[in-house]
Amino acid sequence: MLRAALKSLLARKVRLVMSTFAIVLGVAFVAGTLVFTDTLNRSFTALFASTVGDVVVTPVTSDDAASIPGGAGAPGAGQGGAGASERDTPTLPARLVKRLARVEGAARADGNVLDAAVFVIDKNGKAVAAFGAPSLGSNWTGAPAGQGLVGLQIVRGDPPKRRGEVVLDALTAQRSGYAVGEEVTLFTGGERVLKPTLVGIADFAEGGSFSGATWTAFDTRTAQRLFLGGRNRFHSAWVTAAPGVTQEELRDRVAEVLPAGYEARTGDDVADESSSLLLQGISFLTTFLLIFAGISLVVGAFLIVNTFSILVAQRSKELALFRALGASRRQVSASVLVEAFVLGVVGSTLGIGLGVLLAMAIRTLFGTFGLDLSGQPLVFAPRTFVASYAVGIVVTMVAAWFPARRTARIAPIQAMRDEVALPETSLRRRFLGGLALGAAGGGALALGLMGTVDRAGWFVGGGILAILLGVSAAAPVICQPFLLGARALFSALMGSVGLLAGQNSLRNPRRTTATASALMIGLALASTMAIVGDSAKASVDRALETNFRGDYVVSSIVGQPFSASIARRMGRVDGVERVAPVRFTFGELEGGEGGRPQGLTAARLPALRGLLGVEVLRGDDSRLAPGTVIVGESHAEQEGLAVGDTLAMQVNGRRLRLDVVGIFADNPVLPFPVVTDPRTLLRAGLPDRDNLLVVDVTSPGPVLESQLEGVIGRLPTLTLKDQAAFAAEQREPIDQLVLMIFALLGLALLIAVLGIVNTLALSVIERTREIGLLRAIGLQRSQLRRMITVESVVIAMLGATLGVGLGVGFGIALMHSLRDQGLEVISVPWDQLAAFGLVALVVGVVAAVLPARRAAQLDVLQAIGTD
Q1: Which label site among 53, 508, 774, 862 has the fewest CB atoms less than 10 Å from its CB?
Q2: Cβ distance 755 to 22 under 8 Å?
Q3: What's the rounded Cα separation, in Å, for the pair 311 and 318?
């Protein structure tokens, strides 16, 4: 039986290739996702391991001194200007670095200067930066990284040694077009335009990537002049261990000589903490991609089950003869499972290869959104191969087990008949089971959307999957009216050819709906995302129209803060009535189960009441001062906050105690629902920089707009936008996200398309004798091609109808649950949904090309003689 199974497999090479398609594509997404996420993790872990010394010394601030209000906190806070922010920045003196170099067990000690707002301007005058990624500037020390790792090293040219020299990381140099020896244009957060000479290019020797950030290095004195007001101080220090000295030993020795206000930590601890925090922050990417891998796998499973059902049905007479010759049911089932195992191994191997190409494509896709990993080689971890083969083989064998089980039920006497019919699962049982699964999925979806359970996302995802599987199971019954209507329609339009095509679709509704289900899943999710994206954009437009009362907005094209002096200069332009600076930062809430991230918005009271349209419902916003906050209504309800409560937060390494003095109506214009006075951020040691300016003028016009443009004209990272342009800018990230999701869903749709091709091709093989008889009684080749094309179109339109219908329901339900999050508008993009239907129609026509061509080329006499 084993030899017979393998010979049968090799004897049907066309069917073998078609059967492997589904496995290859399903495994490819799993392998590609795992390779990309491992590459992403490796990029950040290598980055942090290569950017810390054996021991890292940093200044710390006691809770008492850092608390706001009550501590000395920040001398000169609130005075404005770069000087105030420089004085507020925690630093350590150069003499301490010299003392650290003399510690027993230390090979050397190096002081580090760092700033996150040094922009490289390329040869076309544009800033080289990804939105949200920092533009780092530092001093070059040449210090080795911890554990003997080689961190950034000069790969071309020389390190910077004097004023007027600079080093760039390799990717930034490539993107900006600069070569060693050329003059580089830099723009700093202090609004300085620098023109140093590029003397060297640096890169990571141990792997790693800045992942979209840029890095610029100066000599130490120049960095101190630029970022520390010329003071001979540093933001941190690295202490390198001598041979034979562990990080823990050196840390303890360093701690003994440190004065109060400084701490020493091992580089491994710093790297682990930094990378884990960042990886936790971007963990949604891994989850996001694994979700699409799961979608692809579910779609592929439909295709595999359908493929094996057809293959086993075609071999049913052969398998029944084995039973007549004495093979047991177990042997027959085992022969089918052996074939499935071989196909699983072959398909998984090819799928891993395709997954590598897919990982490269995903890396390129995310690079367009600022997460540039082009400098990081792909990582192939053992789990990728284990998971890929496990998924490919297990899914294939499980998918083959159902038709194999049905095959074993065939009585040997049936081998004497001309046709052998495989027993089908009762459609009534499938229908009832599908309804039960759909109802359970609807309940889980409702619980998840209402947020009344923990891990609501799992309930939402599981509910949607259960509904999709339930509809797929019940589809052979609930789709009967659609198939009957399609038969009637095409019969009226195309006569006997349309009638035959409709009858073929109705002949095996389980197979027809199973093939359509793969397309249904892809289009259901695409339709859901189309509604979410369109509703989010409509909500943004309404929010700006309702709450935003300014005429112009000044912001950074890379999402980085800029000097507060811009607001002051804007305010001095004739015709400008008010300028409202808005700034924000991220902190960590204390209490509960560990820290939780929390964004903090900062704006002056007049701006909040006027240009930003904040309406206080409870409390007194006139008390908004340093150390106090007002909180959005929904956020207050979610966190259980009331006027008089206190929030404990860590911001910039300092502990803040913020008193809640008011609750305001939800305002989607504000970046975060916790709002404080800007002086709170200054006293926390943050630079005196704004993230956004809202400008109110007496009479908008070209002349005034030109004057405002003149204020920021020499600042390449800032833009001036009116309300319409600002709204378009806010919609752009939504469009990018939806486009990225559509791109990932494209693979699931590709699997669905190939599923239709596969089903039709195998169906043609299955119906070879029938096609020969139809040709013999006068059916022309063109009519035969039209018949198979109509069958394909019926399958595709069935999938589109189910998918778009479910997608509309999912999308509306999801947006309704988000009304309290500021997404108040539910908008259904009927034009996009209509486009999905048109795409499905085209898919049906294209998918039929090869099967129809093969059917038309069959020799009539040979076809009639086929068993």
Answers
A1: 862
A2: yes
A3: 11
Cα separation of 588 and 594, whole Å?
9
Q: Distance of CA 431 to CAs 427, 475, 480, Å?
A: 6, 7, 12
| Residue matched to tokens 């093939």 | 515
Written as one letter, the residue type at 464 is I
How far is Cα 475 from Cα 452, in angstroms, rounded to an integer?
Answer: 31
CA 110/CA 690 separation, integer angstroms: 32
| pLDDT (0 to 100) of residue 220 | 94
Decide: helix, strand or coil at residue 644.
coil
| Beta pairing class for 233-234 and 185-188 | unpaired
Alpha-carbon distance of 572 to 577, in angstroms, equals 9
Quick: pLDDT tens for 65-110. Answer: 333 332 222 222 222 333 334 445 678 999 999 999 999 999 999 9
CA–CA gap between residue 384 and residue 373 (Å, rounded):
19
Distance between CA atoms of residues 146 and 194, nearest Å: 32
CA distance 336 to 568: 78
DSSP for 179-246, written as a single string: -TTSB-EEEETTS-EE--EEEEEEEETT----TT-EEEEE-HHHHHHHHSTT-SEESEEEEEEPTT--
Containing 9, the helix (H) or strand (E) segment is: helix 2-11
Lowest mean per-residue pLDDT among 381-390, 504-513, 683-692, 780-789: 504-513
Question: How is the chain split into domains, by residue range?
Answer: 1-55+279-423, 56-278, 426-477, 479-548+728-867, 561-716
What residues does 168 pair with on adjacent strands? 201, 216
Question: What burial letters (b/e) apply to 606-639, b meaning 16+ CB within 10 Å?
Answer: ebbbbbbbbebeebebeebebbbbbbbbebbeeb
Measured between alpha carbons, how far apart are the two ends of the chain, in Å?
21
Quote the CA–CA distance of 132 and 746 in Å, as a whole number.
27
Quote the pLDDT of residue 73.
28
Query: 60 with 218: CB under 8 angstroms?
Result: no
* Residue with the larger pLDDT of the pair 370 and 47: 47
Cα(397)–Cα(619) distance, integer angstroms = 64
Looking at the predicted structure, is the pLDDT value of residue 425 above 80?
no
Contact 523, 833 (CB under 8 A): no
List the beta bridge partners of residue 115. Answer: 137
Strands of the sheet containing 114-115, edge to edge, are 114-115, 135-139, 214-218, 165-169, 197-204, 152-157
DSSP state of 418: S
Task: Respond yes or no on whether the N-terminal peptide bond of residue 69 is cis (omega within 30° of 0).
Answer: yes
Structure confidence at residue 249 as a pLDDT band (50, 70, 90): very high
| Mean pLDDT value across residues 336-343 | 80
The Cα 255–Cα 440 span in angstroms is 59
List, in sequence order, the alpha helices (H) in 282-328: 283-314, 316-324
Spatial distance between the Cα atoms of 287 and 299, rounded to a whole number of angstroms: 18
Within 13 Å and on the Cβ side, how many CA atoms surround 765?
19
**How far apart, in Å, are the Cα atoms of 470 and each of 127, 351, 520, 657?**
51, 28, 12, 51
Distance CA 651, CA 599 (A): 10
**Beta strand 135-139 with 214-218: parallel, antiparallel or unpaired?**
parallel
Q: Supply the DSSP symbol for 774.
A: H
The closest of 585, 580, 552 to 568, measured between CA atoms, is: 580
Beta bridge partners of 408: none
Tell me the residue length of the chain: 867
Place of tokens 């682990």: 272
β-bridge pairing 628-632 and 654-664: parallel
- Cβ–Cβ under 8 Å, residues 362 and 32: yes
Look up residue 176 and give its two tokens: 């900006």
**pTM to 2 decimals?**
0.68
Give me 756's structure tokens. Answer: 């239709």
- Residue of 503, 525, 88, 71 whose CA lies nearest to 288: 525
CA 175 – CA 167 distance, rounded (Å): 14
Alpha carbons 565 and 572: distance in angstroms, whole number:
11
